[in-house]
Amino acid sequence: MNASIQARLSTRRDGRLAISTETAIVVTLLIVSLFLRFIALDSRPFSIEEADTAMAAWDLVHDSTAPTFTAHSPLLYALTSLSMALGMTSRAALRFWSAAGSMGLVMLPLLYRSKIGGLPALSMMAILALSPIAVFTARQADGIALAVTLFFVALTLFEHYARQRMGWLILFAGASLGAAATADYTLLLPAIAGGLGGLYAYATDDEGQLTSEQVKLFLRSVNWGLFAAGFAASFFLVSTVFFISPGRLGDAADLIARFINGLAHRLPETISPLYALVLYEPFLSVMGLIGTWSALQSTRPWMRIAGGWTLSALAISLLYQGATPSHALWVVIPLAVMAASAIGSLLDLKWDCPWWTLAAQVTGITGLAAMIFAGFIQHIRSPYTIPFPVNAPPEEASFHIPVDLLLAILWLLLLAILLFSILSIWGQRTAIKGTGLAFILIGIAVMTGQSVKLAFPGVGNPYEPINSRASQAGLDMLGDTIEEIGKLTTGYPYDIGITTELVDSTVAWELRAYNRVTYVNAPSPDIDTVLVVTRPTQENPYLGSSYVGQDFVIHRYWKPTSLSLTDYLIWLIYRTPPLPATEDRVILWVREDIFRLVQAGGVPER
To answer: Alpha-carbon distance 580 to 570, whole Å?
Structure first.
């Protein structure tokens, strides 16, 4: 085994601890993953679906007077309830479970190192650590990251059972799959894709490694009763939070309805998972398809299964209407397996030139690619042109020479000349090796930039297409304003009287801790509380007293429709469109006598 990729700690004879290169890389990837997934988890308000589940858990633990909200992920509802019961109610604590599930995905390749090899396992781990879609789902309090992790844990247990025939593995596989079924409504999609991959491997089994007798023998050896017991126990215990909340079993049943509804109906204000892959995972998509093409022709059954699975997952992500951008994570995993295989083959490829020549080739290709991109971007954003003839006035010029575009074309020609020269001097393998390494370097840089942007500044950006309805800082401002007024008027902020329209769960979350909150369907003259929260209307609502209002932007959303090609490209690169986003607002009304008091900074006598 190559010592440079040996993944273990060894002890030197002098007693000092030596860390292998692979171990150092694994530790580095884990640190990067932790940073991208856990840092500043509470930096933005909950989305509507996040707040729905959080409010459902809050109602279970604190017996809230707020309306009953649907727990979109019963597993996350159970875990969130546990967090709240332990006193952890911050947004970071509630998003912790998704981030932890995503960390499980990053470590998943280590379980398959003996099967796929050390280098592909490291490559897959790096892809999952830096994947923009994996990072995005890790920072959302929804069930997709947990569902994907538990599904592949169940698959791993099945794989170990096939070799060891230990009954407890089947029990835990069923329990893991049962929990995954409560985490997200799309669990059948990877099962279908995996089954189609297995059928492809069976149909192309020219070597006789997958006979029907072998499949039947394995299926008969499985204790399906034990598997079903583990599945059912996990499903019902999670759905009812260990029978503490049996009424929530309806939320688990609702997952089936959501899946069926998604067969024919596209969710509003969302993009398809396939579109999300193209926008956020171009490097993974290209390398994954290269690896898939090779895997489909492999003599190893598991490689053909993985290749067929990847193609099936891509087709299903296109055909299934009810998936959100986060569900692209189901496709990211098989694509990562295939991309890791392609990267491993590339790195194992021998070359016929000195190492410094290969390094120079990678540097040259990367530099020229950056110059091409820079010239193209400058042309579409702020083009510099020269009139022809040169001395002619602009209105009399025959045409204008696009200087930046011509420079980009020049760099492209130089890149073609460089590749042709390498191919002529050192041969095909060297050209493929250097070009592939440069593409990997560029891909890592793009993935890292996308992930950092989605993890921090891009999370509230409505122009990020992966954000269906981005919650805004106005929600935090609304909560802070109510708390400040409560302190000024009662001395204890949570005793202030509040009446609110049934806006959505994000507003309910901001009001969750207040003791005197009344929810109404619409404003009325009977309302005379200190504070009133309403939707914006054409006219001021007719309330029982005189009020002063301030509006707060709580959600923004935008879709790239009716754009010119230039505007579309600018949005695609900079996420800065020519048209503003649509805004959802609420108005906080303060009773006029209290408003004057707040302006003066005084506190009334109690």
So the answer is: 14
End-to-end CA distance of the chain: 79
pLDDT digits (tens, 9 = 90+) for 305-340: 999 999 999 999 999 999 999 999 999 999 999 999
Cα R_g (the chain), whole angstroms: 29
The answer to whether residues 277 and 318 touch, using CB atoms and an 8 Å cutoff, is no
Task: Compute CA 87 distance to the chain's CA centroid, rounded to the nearest angstrom.
Answer: 27
374 pLDDT more than 90: no
CA distance 215 to 142: 36
Please, which pLDDT band fits residue 500 given cuts at 50, 70 and 90?
very high
Query: Strand pairing of 531-534 and 497-501?
Result: parallel
Write the secondary structure of 282-327 as one string of H (helix), E (strand) and C (coil). HHHHHHHHHHHHHHCCCCCHHHHHHHHHHHHHHHHHHHCCCCCHHH
pLDDT of residue 3: 44
**Minimal CA–CA distance to 318: which of 421, 215, 193?**
193
Whether 530 contacts 483, CB under 8 Å = no
Q: What is the mean pLDDT of residues 148-156?
A: 93
Q: Residue 13: is its pLDDT beyond 50?
A: no
DSSP single-letter state for residue 581: P
Dmax (CA) for the chain in angstroms is: 90
Q: Are strands 17-19 and 9-11 parallel, antiparallel or unpaired?
A: antiparallel
Contact call for residues 433 and 421 (beta carbons, < 8 A)? no
Q: In what order do the strands lie in the sheet with 516-520?
A: 470-471, 547-557, 582-591, 531-534, 497-501, 516-520
Q: What is the mean pLDDT of residues 345-366?
A: 84
Whether residue 141 is predicted with pLDDT greater than 60 in this model: the reply is yes
Distance CA 336, CA 310 (A): 9
Residue 127 neighbours by CB under 8 Å, 6+ apart: 284, 336, 339, 340, 447
3-class SS of residue 255: helix
